[in-house]
Every structure is written in C-alpha cells, then in structure tokens.
Design brief:
alpha+beta, three-stranded antiparallel beta sheet, 11 helices, 5 strands, extended, membrane, transmembrane helix, Transmembrane protein
Length: 278
Amino acid sequence: MSQALTARDHFHPRWYIRCVMYLVAFLHTKHRVTFRAAALILVCAAFLFTCFVGNMVDPIKVPETLKTVFSRFEIKDNFVVNPTCFRCHYVLEPDVASDTFCPECNAEVFGAAWQTADNPARVQKRKPHVRRCLADSARVQKRKPQLVSPVQLLSEGLKDFFRRPGMVAAVNSWKHRTVVEGELKCMQDAAVWKTIKDANGHSFFFGPGVDEEIRLGVSFSLDWYARSKSSFASSGSSGAMSFCVQNLETSLKCDVVRVYLVDILDAHHLVTDIGLII
C-alpha cells in the first residue's frame, strides 16, 4: 500500500488534484476532449478549490495544461513529429540537424535562431525583474522547423490494435458469415476479397498459410478540411491521411479508436494531378 501511495504522490501530493488530473486524461483519451478544454478544467478546478476551502492548493503548483498531466503520468504520443519543408512538403527524419536544407528544393527547413536580448520590444513588455533576467542570460533559443508533420506508421498503429482483446478473432470473423448469392450486404461480399492474390499468386485471404498468419484488408483515406494556420498546416485545405482495417464489421471499424491517423497533408500550395482529382 505504501508503494502505491508513493507512486500516486509522484503525480501530485494532493489527492483531490490527482482526481482532476485523472479526469482530464480520461476525457481526452476516451472522448477526445481538446487540450484547451482540459486546460480550462484544470485552471477552474484549482480556482474553485482555492475559493471554497481557502489556501488548499498553495504553495504546491497545480498542472495547468494537459501536456503537463501526460508528462506526470508518463503518457507519450503515438506519433513522431518530423520536420517538413515549407515549400515542397518533403518530410525529413526527426533527428536532422538544425542547419539542414531540403534535398528536393534546397529550402531552409529550420527558422532563424532568436536571441532573447536582441528582441527589445518583447523584453520591454515583461516585468522589471523578468527583463533583468532576460538581459543577463541573453539565451539563444533553439532553432525550430518552419513546418512539421506528425507521422504515425501503420505498423505502429497495428501494435496498439492487437493489444486490444479479441481483435485476432474479430478480423477473421467475416469469413464465417452466411453469404446469400447475389446480395452484397458488406464490403467483404465483394468479389475482390475472394480474387485478390498474394505475392505467390494464391488467394490472399483463403490461400495456403492463412491459418498461420493474420491477413488484413486495409483502406486508405484522405479527408480534406479547412483549418486555421498553425505549425502543422497553413491556412487553406489540409488532408488527414488515415488507415482503417476493413476486416472488421461496420460497428467496430468505424470506431474512432480503430481509425489510424498517419499524417496531415498541407495542400494549400499543392497543385498536382492527384490534388486536383481529389
């Protein structure tokens, strides 16, 4: 019991603050509540605790963002943020040097470094003691990519997919359905599921070796939408690229937890045959 209490105290010493932290983490992971809404819940909860029970939350700092909560819980993202060329949208490796130029169009991938003391207009807006600290340190901020792309490989998403109980049986259940000749009630009733070949020319879903392997039919989607300008995409059209395992019945495969977002394509300046068709 003492070890469990120590582990929980590591998240936050006050039990009522931990309850709010558990709440916002659950709301985001289960119901997709936004980061901003979670931050609002945290700040309001801290304010209410202070109003109703006096100095209940001080001097211990209360987490103010969902990012801080995830850091305390050691919850990590399922994607990697890759630097991306702002001109031609070439995606680079996450660990490239900050002086890297795009290999396709030779554009500078990272923005210029910013030195604290060289920005007097911004420094003057700070409080006096903050201005003194900034002037003394004159730190050079790390160069950041001008555009980034969050990327999750399908192989990584499938690891999480098969951690869920019953998924192996679920992806094979369509083979045991009763099919009426001439009636198409779901995607698996189409001829392609019976005729598609593997690398050896055998039926992909019904050929030799299907009992020893898990064989998936995966669809790829590119959904266009408009969004405000951010580091992930400029203003204009953007495309969310995702994969979905089509072996599952409709009630399962349409669940948001089984749709794997792999990248976001900024198409504001993308003029290609594919872009025009889509």
